[in-house]
Amino acid sequence: MRTAEELERADAMVLPGGESTTMDKLLRKFELQQPLRRRLIDGMPAMATCAGLILLAREVLDGLPDQESLGILPLSVRRNAYGRQPESFERDLEVEGLDAPFPGVFIRAPVIESMDPEIEVLAEVDGVAVVVAQGVVMGLTFHPELTRDDRLHGLFLERAA
User: Fold this and answer.
1) How many CA atoms lie within 13 A of 68 on its CB side?
2) Distance from C-alpha of 121 to C-alpha of 89, rounded to nearest angstrom
3) 69: Cβ–Cβ under 8 A, 6 or more apart, which residues?
4) 145 noted as active-site residue
């Protein structure tokens, strides 16, 4: 999607991992930030992973001075909170709604430091939320697309329906 018109035709959105500051700048450059925010507020389903979750957060605790988030999910995140690339890790996750552990791949992952009580926690690592949801919006601090397991995408589609 590169235009607001294309965004209007979308039924749902996946906001991927990547570099959240660059994603923010590109959303603003192509004048998609406000149309995307409006679609999400109006109820468009979204699944946000890693940097995508940072984009949806109400607050980015260690963002760049000019970095903006969409403020869709009432939570605060810290970028790269587990450390740099060498501190990346994998962990089997017990995810509410899945019948067996899901392989979480955490690469320079953010940490959810605080959230409002209406946020539903679907999985945790060491007591810290790593899969959250609010209505039809799901946020993950890791990269499910780096596995061959599509159950989290299926769970998102079930919630979106």
Assistant:
1) 11
2) 21
3) 24, 54, 55, 56, 57, 58, 59, 60, 63
4) yes
For the chain, give the percent of residues with pLDDT over 90: 81
Among 113, 120, 145, 153, the one annotated catalytic:
145
Selected catalytic residue, list 50, 87, 153, 158:
50
Strands 102-106 and 46-49: unpaired
Rounded CA separation 120/161 (Å): 18
Catalytic, 50? Answer yes
Q: CB-based burial of residue 6 (10 Å sphere; 0-12 exposed, 13-18 middle, 19+ buried)?
A: exposed
143 assigned to active site: yes
Gap between the terminal Cα atoms of the chain: 22
List, for residues 97-145, the tens digit of each pLDDT value. Answer: 999 999 999 998 999 999 999 999 999 999 999 999 999 999 999 999 9
Catalytic residue among 19, 143, 153, 158: 143
- State residue 160's pLDDT score: 94
